[in-house]
Specification:
Blueprint lengths: L19 H16 L3 H14 L4 H13 L3 H14 L4 H13 L3 H14 L4 H13 L3 H14 L4 H13 L3 H14 L4 H13 L3 H14 L4 H13 L3 H13 L4 H8 L6
Length: 273
């Protein structure tokens, strides 16, 4: 979770002329615009505050948040980097720059920044969780699991860490362990359709088809546009010989953009009206 800085921070108390009060006004308006998700307007305000007083660290940091929310990740990295230059011990700036690198799939760079954030704040549960996510993307599953476990130690209610550890265990084909973690994630965030879907996948791998179907169905109840859940449930119906139910799911999945099951059933003459 990203944390906005509400206070106007100026390095070393430096004030450029009489601009600090005017800069404060733009900064405060930028905060309001950001909180109302008017990100472009917030960027304009933070930029004006910086123009009036280039020592305002929080304006760089918050502008970085706004750029990131607009998916302008390179620009957000530029601003976080400036904030880090001005306040090198700011764990949040490193963490958020790590998020931006991760969004750009620059996982080695994101790991570097999360690691620095952890060095500065050893109780930074989200930094451990997100470093684990980047490690998982690099297929370093054992190290990823170690980080997710540390995040959970620091925050026993960190549902995302349980979910991510479940994914890592699935990648290692440790399906019972993945089911345990998805179940905990569901307990903490009961409306998470992805957790149900991925737990369904683990049950599917263990050939526990009734529980897999149950989880895919719950995922669909929570997200009626979940194409993969329809497709995965349809595969099981087809495997069990219920081609009518499989056809219904295949058609729905295809209408949502996932036509693999539908095409396979059509080519093999399994579609039923």
């Amino acid at each position: 979770m990203k944390k906005i800085i509400l206070l106007l921070l100026v390095i070393g108390g430096t004030v450029f002329g009489d601009n600090i009060s005017e800069a404060q006004e733009y900064f405060n308006r930028g905060i309001s615009n950001y909180e109302f998700q008017n990100y472009s307007k917030a960027i304009t305000d933070f930029s004006k505050a910086i123009q009036l007083n280039p020592a305002i660290v929080a304006a760089y940091y918050n502008r970085g948040l706004a750029y990131s929310d607009l998916k302008e990740y390179q620009l957000s990295i530029r601003d976080y980097t400036k904030a880090i230059e001005l306040t090198p011990n700011d764990s949040d700036a490193y963490y958020n720059r790590g998020l931006a690198y991760s969004d750009l799939k620059e996982y080695q760079l994101s790991i570097r920044d999360y690691t620095k954030a952890i060095e500065l704040n050893s109780h930074f549960a989200n930094a451990y969780n997100n470093r684990g996510f980047s490690l998982d993307k690099l297929k370093r599953y054992s190290l990823a699991i170690k980080d997710f476990t540390k995040a959970i130690e620091l925050d026993a209610n960190h549902s995302k860490a349980y979910y991510n550890r479940g994914l890592a265990y699935s990648d290692l084909k440790e399906y019972q362990l993945s089911i345990r973690d998805y179940t905990k994630a569901i307990e903490l965030t009961p409306n998470d359709s992805d957790a149900y879907y991925n737990r369904g996948n683990s049950y599917n791998h263990l050939t526990d088809y009734p529980l897999a179907i149950k989880d895919y169905t719950k995922a669909i109840e929570l997200n009626s546009h979940f194409a993969n859940a329809y497709s995965s449930r349809g595969h099981i119906y087809g495997f069990k010989g219920d081609y009518r139910a499989a056809t219904k799911d295949a058609k729905k999945a295809c209408s949502l953009g996932s036509c693999g099951l539908f095409d396979m059933m059509k080519n093999n003459g399994y579609l039923k009206d």
